[in-house]
Amino acid sequence: VENVRLLDRLSSRKAALGTLYLTATHVIFVENGSETRKETWVLHSQISSIEKQATTATGCPLLIRCKNFQVIQLVIPQERDCHDIYISLIRLARPVKYEELYCFSFNPKLDKEEREQGWKLVDLSEEYNRMGIPNNYWQISDVNRDYGVCDSYPTEVYVPKSATAHIIVGSSKFRSRRRFPALSYFCKDNNASICRSSQPLSGFSARCLEDEQMLQAIRKANPRGDFIYVVDTRPKLNAIANRAAGKGYENEDNYSNIKFQFIGIENIHVMRNSLQKMLEVCELKSPSMSDFLWGLENSGWLKHIKAIMDAGIFIAKAVAEEGVSVLVHCSDGWDRTAQVCSVASLLLDPYYRTMKGFMVLIEKDWVSFGHKFNHRYGNLDGDPKEISPVIDQFIECVWQLMEQFPCAFEFNERFLIHIQHHIYSCQFGNFLCNSQKERRELKIQERTYSLWAHLWKNRADYLNPLYRSDHSQTQGTLRPQMAPCNFLYKFWSGMYNRFEKGLHPRQSVTDYLMAVKEETQQLEEELEILQERLANLQKSQLDDDKDKSKQQDQSKQLGLSNSSNSLANTPQEYSSDLKSFPSRSPSQGDEEDSALILTQDNLKSSDPDLSANSDQESGVEDLSCRSPSGGGCLPSEDSGKDSDEAVFLAV
Amino acid sequence: MLRSSQPLTGANRKRCREDEMLLGMVLDEGERGFIIDTRSAQAAKQARMTGGGTEPKSSYPQWRRLHRPLERGRPLQESFIKLVEACNDTSINMDRWLSRLESCRWLNHVKAALSTACLAAQCMDREEASVLVHGAEGTDTTLLVTALAQVILDPSCRTLAGFQGLLEREWIEAGHPFHLRCARSAYSHARLKQEAPLFLLFLDCVWQLSRQFPFSLEFGEHLLLTLFDNAYASAYGTFLCNNEKERRVGREAGTALCLCKVKESTHSLWAWLNQPGEKKKHLNPLYSHNALVIWPSVEPQSIQLWQGLFFRWIRSSQYLDEAWAEVQRLVEGD
């Protein structure tokens, strides 16, 4: 459709005129005119909702909200076209078959072996080996090899050595969805472990010998532990209410040597609404500080993040400081349990704070343990009540930790943002379906590509320059400060306002430091070579040479500092008073240098935060620097595209 | 950019030829200028009752007046006190923290100050118009706006030396009454009438700029904290007294305080700061000269609570300090 306008959310003055295309996998807006063909690509999988707004004199507005928090406002000249687009998008954004998803047509031009290798990058059996299993206390069990015991669990589960198949099967019958207690994390240093399950079907008074034996087995697997914690991550009221439905929680009287603990994290419906409310705050036009703070508090979002974090901290403490094993569950053991176990693991084990380790962590606690990606993130059209930002919250917990411990993580914020993006994008096969069983049935690994391989290939973009494996922050357990720590939780505008360029610092400190690091390394290598040569020359000539200039001088010649200069930015609309002025626009052109053209080599092109609105000091008045210019900061999903600007997510 | 205090128009709408001529001379024929009045239109009008007022359009035809009320005085001090209380309150739950933060209104003041400074800067840079800034006295919000606008506009004010010069010019010599304003800070039980944290508000705004433009200021947070400390209590004479007259000549004999000849009897903070050892601690390792204007975002998401100041004694800054040490190490190519 031609003559479509793409509006800037805040300033209609910055509307771009162009053509809208709908393909099988994307919505594409191509801006007219300029030599740089600014393109905005949106994957159908990313579309969360489409809103047709009231027709105005200028046309029919269409608002597209995406799961990665991008909001696109289009104005379509003809009402009929608008309606057609609307209907088409509704259908395209709600696939009914897996085969409709992009991952089945995405072609990064790798051969079969490379695809296979990609999938092998993260190997969970290696991970459990790394933890030190099998050992005297824990072993792998094949009781679930055909998914016969629990169809949402993986085929390989790790259980205490003293848990026989009989005990496991018996326990599984007493657990919601058959999700029996299984190992999530084993701490080599003190034999404490984190196990996870779903709620017991205890009702008001039911008991199950095998389930009680299972918990005993877990306790005994820790020779110094005289009790285990059982942590129910639901609010107490909810758990009690579940009893009426024949489920519930562990009674300390029935299970010997357990200490039971509620840590109230709200359910998926509350979280869905919380996110919704927070996004509404983000969509406010020119909010005051008060509007924003009230709105954010009203959404409850940061409170929920803190609740998840507190649960993770409790568990990490139990394991690291008390040396006590913990069994975690919620209702079904695939949402809050996953969040809390992975946060705890991250706090406990520095390996999970490396890039590879993080991928392994997600693969372990989310993918293999049957987190319902399809239902939660809407791969396919389904029940809207199942949708909930569960993994988003976990990812945010990681970001909050990164802000508190800037040296502790090998990866940077962009890594997290891209992972979140791809959980919804369905461009790769890792996060499809609801369980390992479903994925194997669909032969995902033979028909799609692994995100981990893709991220790994581009890992240079995802590194944290402040990370050093020998740094004190990266060793051992992370201990976030507890109370009073409300203030430590910040609003993550890098994620929720990701596409609003004007809100973020125009220059990326991370990228700059990475560039410095790389250059320093190169120079060090060069220096070594030169020093060798020098030594050889000295040996052969026995001459006195002048000192080579010190490495420090060389690094100052890097000239990196100049790279950030030309990234000028433009003023926000600070005052409506100025608009009414007789404008004195200098004759300089509009936005030809509003650069999506990244002129500095050392600036990574993988995210738009460096580009938009970097027009030179041209005196163009009244530009709002909140506009993502033309929205051209979208990840281009098609690896075939090589135009600079569109490849914001280096695919 | 010019600054002044309010014109003494009064209830009788007095005129002053000299004042009109002075402002007239600033502008060329046909040029327009802006007056940014840091009081609300209503407050400015009410000021007439006590002899003050605003510049009437008829007498100053080339000047257009904009009102941008900025908080000062008692309410600003209350805001500060409330914020510090909130930060120290260990009993607040996460559910109520943000609304408590909002009720202090400190961040609102930061947003307003930054917006007004940006407005002044925009008038000059984008509209290429001259700007006159004044409130009532010309010693508080006026200086906040002019100083901040210069940091935004002028790269030389973002160097360590330039920033010191800016402080000397726009705060100290311009007559911000430090002695009255920075007497007891937030914990004092005595609610002094003249106490108000305008200078802290300025430092907070500069901190916001440093966060949004991490490469563009030659100094870091450490300097801002040092300045905050020294404004209230200092081994140096730089922030003493209320104006240049008091510093040079002292007060009238018979008053309780009689400080005089500050330059002869005390040491300068700048001299200490500029020593190589001290200087190094206050520099920003990421600094690289940015010749352009830096336009901050004043959206609520972009304005953050200055944790380094408000939680300074409440939570450990160990991990953040380590991060900065690492940045330093990387940039110096150890």
TrEMBL record, chain A:
Gene3D superfamilies attached to this UniProt entry: Pleckstrin-homology domain (PH domain)/Phosphotyrosine-binding domain (PTB) (2.30.29.30)
Compartment(s) of residence: Cytoplasm; Endomembrane system
Protein's UniProt keywords contain RNA-binding: no
GO biological process, one term: phosphatidylinositol dephosphorylation
Domain of life from the UniProt record: Eukaryota
Membrane topology according to the record: Peripheral membrane protein
Residue stretches of biased makeup (Polar residues): 568-588
Chain intervals for the UniProt region annotation (Disordered): 540-651
Residue ranges that the Swiss-Prot or TrEMBL entry lists as coiled coil: 513-540
PROSITE patterns from the UniProt entry: PPASE_MYOTUBULARIN, TYR_PHOSPHATASE_1, TYR_PHOSPHATASE_2
Identification of the protein by name: MTMR7 protein
Organism: Herpetotheres cachinnans (Laughing falcon)
Upper classification of the organism: Eukaryota, Metazoa, Chordata, Craniata, Vertebrata
Gene behind the chain: Mtmr7
TrEMBL record, chain B:
GO biological process: negative regulation of autophagy; phosphatidylinositol dephosphorylation
Listed GO MF terms: protein phosphatase binding
Pfam families: Myotub-related (PF06602)
Domain Myotubularin phosphatase: start-end pairs: 1-310
InterPro entries named in the record: Myotubularin, Myotubularin-like_Pase_dom, Prot-tyrosine_phosphatase-like
Entry GO terms, CC: cytoplasm
Entry similarity comment: Belongs to the protein-tyrosine phosphatase family. Non-receptor class myotubularin subfamily.
UniProt name for this protein: MTMR9 protein
Natural source organism: Herpetotheres cachinnans (Laughing falcon)
